[in-house]
Amino acid sequence: MRGKIIIIGMICFLFLLRAPYALAKDPVKVGVISVLSGPLAVVGKGEPDAIKMLIEGYGPLLGEKVELVIKDHAYSPGLAVERAKELYEKDKVDVIIGCPNSAAALGVSDQAAKNKKLFISTDAGTCDLIARNPYTIKWNYNDYMLATTVGLWGAEHLGKRWYTITSDYAWGHDLLKYFTAALKKKGGEHVGNDMVAVGTADYSPYILKAAKANPDVLVLLNVGKDAVNSTKAAVEYGLKKKAKIVHALLFEVDIKGAGIDIFEGDYTAASWNWVAPIPGVRKFADQFYERYGDRPIFMAAGGYSAALQYLEAVKRAGTKEQIPVIKALLNHTFKDIFADPGFVRAEDHLQLAKSYLLKVKKASDVKEKEDYFEIIGSVAAEEANPPVGFFGRKIGGF
Amino acid sequence: MEGRSSFSPPGYSMDIQFVFIQLFNGLALGSFYILLSLGLTIIFGMLGVVNFAHGALYMLGAYCGYTLVQVYSGNFWMAVILSPLIVALIGIVMESTLLRKLYDLPHFYNLLLTFGLMIFIEELIQIIYSPMGKPFNTPKELLGSIDLGFMLFPKYRLFILGVTLFLAIGIWLFMGKTKLGAIIRAGTDDSEMVDALGIDISKIFTLVFGMGAGLAGLAGVLAAPLQNIFPYMGMGILTETFVVVIIGGMGSIFGSILGGIIVGELITMGVIFWPPMANTLIYIFMAAVLLLRPRGFFGRVKFFE
């Protein structure tokens, strides 16, 4: 018995001895959650790749090399919360960046508030992440911005009569709400809408119905294979010849997968593209391409920007303490390869930058790999994003 | 834009022509369900196997088409003929190496096996071809529309309708008029008796499974130009195919055809008249059929009643 107590005492003593040493060697640790397995891995892997590229080239911060921990949540909200707990509690990261899937990001945001550590959400579109809690910052795109960009710019440039085909779940309903508001503001006419179940293989009945309404523009408020299947049906039934097609969100992998021919001439809103007129963007895209064999998508660039601005904020604050760093991030205007300029609003922790409208090139105009888009317009940051207090929430104190 | 005057704003009156167009479109949509459920139903009728791998075989058909046309730059017609044969061959191998071993055990062993095969095939395709979608264009000869008098209809859908009609009649004649068809029908009723009569029933089983797989493969390659080709494309359509088979009656060819048309029409009519329920209608209809006539329209009594 006595021997045991002595041993336990010795162990405790050793831990005490170790403690100051541990304090001295305390690098800034960045955690990234993304989807790295399953069918969506092709979309998810770019972000950790880009952040890895950034951190490897980033010099010492607070006297130490920055460390990076990458976790896969396989697009599962449950797993995302587990990963966030591990990162904050076990790996002791100072910030989590990324996390595609809105439900997953909301879960991670709650973990951030619980652990009083920063979460920068770069991949989930839901506006519920805006002004959610003091430890969450919404970076990159949001659903309001996508739908509003399409509505505001489109009503001016593409036509007056608009028909929508909407994915029948929370995301689609949100997009539709913001889109119709923006369209109304610019005097566009909404001539019809159809809610379509996710994963519907044959969109032909919906396309026939849309064609009957004779719209100038068809808006597809869907993503992934739904975007592909609805566009294919629009091409097949000749609606694409009569009306322009606009996507709220269009991924490069879907263009690559289904072939650029079916998307040719379509429009989409975006927070970023590697052909955007931002200084240094081409160099970043080339570096990324050389290293990983693909062009970076907006999620990769958004994550890169969030990580870079976080590290810069640590530098400005001179500490990795949570509250000073978050304060250094807020109300700060920055310029990087993602936003020129970008700004993080203190009132609702929303990162703002101007949004872009992209047009899909003709197959014959594609000069290099993944050169799918041309920038055709942009909407100012304040116009494209929700005004302060739009969602009726206020961020509490730390 | 011309023709705008003919349009009246939302809540517009439903003109007959539009309903006709959608009805016709429903037939084309139903064609896929018919092709898939024919295979599913003859396999069930003969072998007593609920083939969960049917969706995966459909997906294989699409990938065969993609590989033949896009990778080896063959032509579409070759793919339409070869893909079903390749998938049929895969089906034959599946039956003769795996399914066969489980016939003597309760039905759900084969159900589990085919379910496992589905996952295996899907993951295998994902590893080989990546989870990304694959491009497949409508063949040049079938691009554009034909004026049917009351509407413009895409040539390609018309082609699918024709192929399905041809096959449905062909299979019906084959089952009804040929000796082999008679053996299959007899086998569906009592396979042991057929075996006792000196006919090698196991060869017939293999043939039937291959035929069903081939039909799924054909549906897959025909769907390829219309849909996104990706490893999990068979999942959604499999559910609807089961609905078709349940409505039409497990094991009945004519039931499959009728069920396929009903499901195709319910979906398209739902889109016009009751959009929020478009995808639910078929399940409501199925529930009603199950309540009122559990064996389906043309199902045999011995299966479910």
Would you kindly provide a written description of the structure presented here, covering whatever features stand out?
The complex is a heterodimer of chains A (398) and B (305). Chain A has 398 residues and is α/β, with parallel strands linked by helices. Chain A has two domains: 27-141 and 278-353, Response regulator (Rossmann fold, 3-Layer(aba) Sandwich), CATH 3.40.50.2300; 144-270 and 356-384, Rossmann fold (3-Layer(aba) Sandwich). Helices cover 45% and strands 18% of the residues of chain A. Chain A contains 16 helices and 15 strands. Chain A has a seven-stranded mixed beta sheet with strand order 7-6-8-9-10-14-15, sandwiched between helices. A five-stranded parallel beta sheet of chain A has the order 2-1-3-4-5, sandwiched between helices. In chain A, α3 packs parallel to α14 (298-317) and α4 (77-90) runs parallel beside α5. The longest helix of chain A has 23 residues, at 2-24. Chain A starts with a helix and ends in a 14-residue tail after the last helix. Chain B has 305 residues and is mainly alpha-helical. Chain B has one domain (15-304): ABC transporter involved in vitamin B12 uptake, BtuC. In chain B, 69% of the residues lie in helices and 2% in strands. Chain B has twelve helices and two strands; from the N terminus they run ααααββαααααααα. Chain B has helices at 16-47, 54-71, 76-97, 107-129, 155-177, 179-189, 191-196, 201-223, 233-248, 253-273, 281-292, 301-304, and strands spanning 145-147, 152-154. A two-stranded antiparallel ribbon of chain B has the order 1-2. The longest helix of chain B is centred in the first third of the chain and has 32 residues, at 16-47. The radius of gyration of chain B is 20 Å and the shape is globular. Mean pLDDT of chain B is 87; it is low at 1-13. The chains are: A alpha/beta (398), B mainly alpha (305).
